[in-house]
Write a structure and sequence with these properties.
By secondary structure, this protein is an alpha+beta fold. Helices cover 20% and strands 12% of the residues. The chain has four helices and six strands, in the order αββαβββααβ.
Amino acid sequence: MKTSDILTDEKYALAFKSKNYLGIRYDEHWATYTNDPYTGFFIYGLPYSVDPRFFNIYALPCDDGHSYNANTKSFDLVKVGEAVPEEEKPTVVATVNVEYAVNGFNSGDWGDAGAAKGVLNNQLSKIITQKYIAQLPWLPLEAWCDHRRLGLPFFDNPLLCT
């Protein structure tokens, strides 16, 4: 569903992005060694379309009534690997607007796809994967419980902290 049909208030008008928008790529500030197609991109606006339930589950950082910190509408990205003395401030590479940002958690050092666990291709794995796909939109708690209990389906994005 188009995000502009869900969020109709005029204050969101400038935050809507085009259909093929991925965001700004910051490959030195976000992990990029993964099979996630959005890797390294920061979405500083509202996506063209979302699941209609999205804004019932997730809140925008600076939205009315959901403000985590109403004073923080942007943050600075600093130069990676720069040695900074205690009294000085690091070099700012970019200032990122987070007022209506929609981004997932992306942190750490990503390893080879499937390195943390082998991808299972047996009958149980196939059945649980199909059950997960069927349940997720309508029974997310049961899908999450099955995933937590069995470790299936296997998600091929291991986060390896080093």
